[in-house]
Amino acid sequence: MSEAKDRQSTSGVSRRSLLAGSGAALAGAAVAGSTSAAPKASKVYSAPAVIQDRKVIPLFTVENDPKSLAFYEETLRQFQEQVDPNVDIEVSVYQDENILQFVNTAFQTGTDLGIFSSFESQISEWAEQGYLLPLNPIIENVGEDDFLPGTLMEIDGNHYIMPAQANASALWVRNDILEAQGIDVPTTYEDLISTLEAVNGVDGMVGIATGVGQVPNLTTQFFSPYLFQSGWEFFDMEGNLTFDQPAVLEAVERFAGVLQYTTPSLYNATYPDIVNLFAAGRAVFASFPGRLGVNVSENAPEIAEVISVIPVPGGPFMTGQLHFGGASPFSIYAHTAYPEEALAFLEFMLTGERLLELAMTVPGHLLPPLESVRAMVPEYESEFMEKYGDWVLTFNDLVPQAFSPDNSMGSVSHETFHGKLSNSCPWGSRIWGTDPVDGRMFQQIMIEGADPEQAWTAACEELATIREEWLAENPDWEPTLTLATPTS
User: Fold this and answer.
1) What span, in angstroms and rounded, lies between the C-alpha atoms of 15 and 194?
2) Which residues, at least 6 apart from 314, have a Cβ–Cβ distance to it below 8 Å?
3) How far is Cα 354 from Cα 211, in angstroms, rounded to an integer?
4) How many Cα atoms within 13 Å fall on the side-chain side of residue 3?
5) Which residues does residue 286 pair with via DSSP β-bridges, in sequence order?
6) Burial 143-159 (b: 16+ CB within 10 A, else e)
7) DSSP readout, 271-294?
8) CB burial readout 415-424, b (16+ within 10 A) else e
9) Which CATH architecture has domain 170-325+404-473?
């Protein structure tokens, strides 16, 4: 998934505040709940003024770095030349920490979100409420076979997301620190814990930059390798609760063991907190996707020279092979003013060489979700790829077995990896929202000192209740996939 950044763009591109018309209503409503909910800035990228009857499509994104903003501007220029000269794109930036509040407020006020970055865990609920435009024409034009497994989400015959990336969250390591201590790179969980114990405190550094908290999907992202590598996850592909398996408790205890070697401030973490700790030279390891490497290469090049990316050795099942991966999809607001133009621009932006160029605005993080474009990554030429191409290729290799439990429900269960599934968890919005069940569980363990088994038991009960309540509200729901031969 795409995470919030810790600083605003310094590209010099002027932007204006979205405080006019419906934007003012949205901003006012959002501020009533939180002063950080409104987008920080926006810009209209326009064609020459001689063209009349402008069709302005809002585009909300979490990508605020100069290269990404330049990509949107260049993509619009090409779209105007090749498809429709009357379209403008109004780009606004928001953050992962407040996407849910912002988008839900927009829905309630009827604000036109146009094309917007969305959360996979919320898609089923938003689609049911009628807020999302079906994207079937895009999927049909591209061809379902070109999408990486687990990157699409079909609900009652309709597609509501267009993936912008298919990334993986792995482990960054300071090789210079390990070499100075005479320690090899860890390949098992036991190696990882013993290494963290040995390096924690060296030169004032913590063992690892990782965390838990209330930011949607943050805890899930960093906990998932330990969970998946137990041979289980939250639910099987039919939606049956599997988080209550004894092996899952062991996964909870393993991740809690890792969390002992970070700073306690990351028990209520945001994504920038983790990046900043590692980039400042204050952590030996870090759990993160490719953006961390890009930030380190730009802000701490001396550290970039001594780090590498390795799989997370999180547990005994398929050790180091199963990771968290997000698609950071875009959706289109069902009542947007120009739906046909929005569909055309979204397809234009996220296919072919333009998708590759988008991926290379943050190399190793925004990896292409289309097989046809993914194959181009190893041959891409740039200064970054020349220096740090090994990082990018490591992440690219991890992607096929990196998935998210909200869109790939049951990909691993019964100590079997069933492949990276496209299988939405329909009650996911109630689990991984602004008060995520897994985030609260780990905060109880790490902050409140709760016994891991007691916190896990309470989480299992809450997951079961959420599932049962949703099924009672949706008695006609049937799983789209069936577990053929479950074994325990």
Assistant:
1) 49
2) 189, 225, 226, 227, 228, 229, 251, 254, 255, 320, 322
3) 34
4) 29
5) 172, 209
6) eeeebbbbbbbbbeeeb
7) HHHHHHHHHTT-EEEEEE-THHHH
8) ebbbebbbbb
9) 3-Layer(aba) Sandwich (3.40)
Q: Are 294 and 469 in contact (CB under 8 A)?
A: no
Coil, strand, or helix at residue 269? coil
DSSP H or E segment with residue 46: none
Buried b (16+ CB within 10 A) or exposed e, 78-110: ebbeeebeebbbbbbbbbbbbbbbbbbbbbeee
Helix (H) or strand (E) holding 78: helix 66-82
Question: Which tokens is 341 given?
Answer: 């133009």
Q: Please check whether residue 74 is in contact with residue 82, taking contact to mean a CB–CB distance below 8 angstroms.
A: no
Q: How many CB atoms lie within 10 A of CB 465?
A: 11
Is residue 72 within 8 A of residue 93, CB to CB? The reply is no
Alpha-carbon Rg of the chain, whole angstroms?
A: 22
The pLDDT tens digits of the residues spanning 169-227 come to 999 999 999 999 999 999 999 999 999 999 999 999 999 999 999 998 999 999 999 99
Read off φ and ψ for residue 402, nearest 5 degrees.
-120, 125
Q: Give residue-wise pLDDT tens across range 242-286.
A: 999 999 999 999 999 999 999 999 999 999 999 999 999 999 999
Tell me which long-range contacts 351-356 makes (C-beta under 8 A, separation of at least 24). Answer: 351/142, 354/75, 354/78, 356/380
> In angstroms, rounded to a whole number, what is the distance separating the alpha carbons of residues 424 and 237?
9
Task: Please answer whether residues 205 and 284 qualify as being in contact, where contact means their C-beta atoms are separated by less than 8 angstroms.
Answer: yes
- CATH class of the 22-166+326-399 domain in this structure: alpha beta
Please tell me whether residue 463 adopts helix, strand or coil conformation.
helix
- pLDDT of 375 above 70: yes
Q: Which two tokens stand for residue 263?
A: 């700073």
DSSP conformation class of 58: E
22-166+326-399 and 170-325+404-473 share one fold:
yes
- Identify the CA nearest to 254 among candidates 279, 276, 228: 228
Dig out the tokens for 240 from the structure. Answer: 């049956």
Domain ranges of the chain: 22-166+326-399, 170-325+404-473
- Higher-confidence residue of 96 and 254: namely 254
pTM over 0.90: no
